[in-house]
# Entry
Amino acid sequence: MQLVVILSFLMVTLLAGGAIAYIIGASAVLSFAISGNTLYLAALPQRLYGQLDVFAFLAMPLFIFAGDLMNHGGLARALIDFSMSLIGRLKGGLGHVNVLTSVFFAGVSGSAVSDAAALGTALVPEMTRRGYPLDYAAAITGASSIIGPIIPPSVILIFYGALMETSVSALFAAGIVPGLLLAGVLMAMNAFYAYRDNHPGGKADELPRIVPSFLKALPALTLPVIILGGTLFGVMTPAEAAAVAVAAALIVGIAYREMTWQKLMGSLTRTAVLLGALFIILCAISSFSYLAALEQWPQKIAAQVNEWGLSPFQYLMLINVIFLGAGMVMDVKAAVALFAPIFVPVALQLGIDPVHLGIVICFNITIGLLSPPLGGVLLILATTVNMNYWRLIRATFPFFLAELLLLMVLTLFPGLSTALPTALGLM
# Structure
């Protein structure tokens, strides 16, 4: 009952619109008082430092910085041109280009919001100029941006791996097949809508030539190969791969003649601001994790699960509901940091594979970026393309349902996530 009261208070205050870090931190301290554990607050500073002193976290700021450098260094335009040269002549070609660019962009960015901002600025106006409805152009952009956090290098997978002590390299490998499956589903839906609604596209379209666009995009296309090859085959740790990504992003930006001193300083500033907000949230949430350990919440949840007689699959479905609901109203990383330490240990006790569990949770909570009331991708896109928020929600709803169905498939068939890391000896 105490856990229900605390989480209910937390959700109500979050929906009221306060700063998430302050609300979580205040709720945590109040929870210590309510539960009679105020004496343990003296050890809280040491606990907070220990929560952040994790080597795997070093990769996160570097990948965020590399993604921002790429976003402002001409990468998006080069990848869009190359994608258009490959499949732009198909019926509904720009919709396919949208999805394929997200796959390429995911390999260097790892952020759905960055993907949505870049493609919303560069591709949505082009789609509407060529005759696509604004609703559809924005919807396919939002749906495809969800690929970013699934295909490695993914910031959310690094975050989850560091938080739950799961191999980041194994999570990277596990995210490849689900990410490509998502791309395939979205391309199939785009083909259906293209023929049903007679979207533009065809052989008559004037598109970039393949060889010149490939040569221009080649520096960007080599980055995922370097990053994934280095991490999956043990040549580099994720943190070292992130440092290589930053150096390569700078070189690519200079090669494209897009990177200026002002853009570099802007990327540093945005990365520092984002990290400051992120680590404040981590500190606040680690207070809750500390209280959860003191109050033995995971053990109580495990006892309740045993009492209900839930199977591993049924518990996974329960986790899906919890994390999907959290993703609808909370920041993705905040939701993972708050709920994963409480619910994941029980899943591991039930014999659920930790890598499969990480992919299911991260895929699940990322879908929340595309769902009301506070979907981050929806908010960014609505602002970027100057579109009514609720109109955008209606447009993206079919894609949201398709991604939910794919989530159910991934939950049912663990091998889709675990086959590749097992084959590479990372499990």
Notes: The two ends are 37 Å apart (CA to CA). The first helix runs from residue 2 to 15.
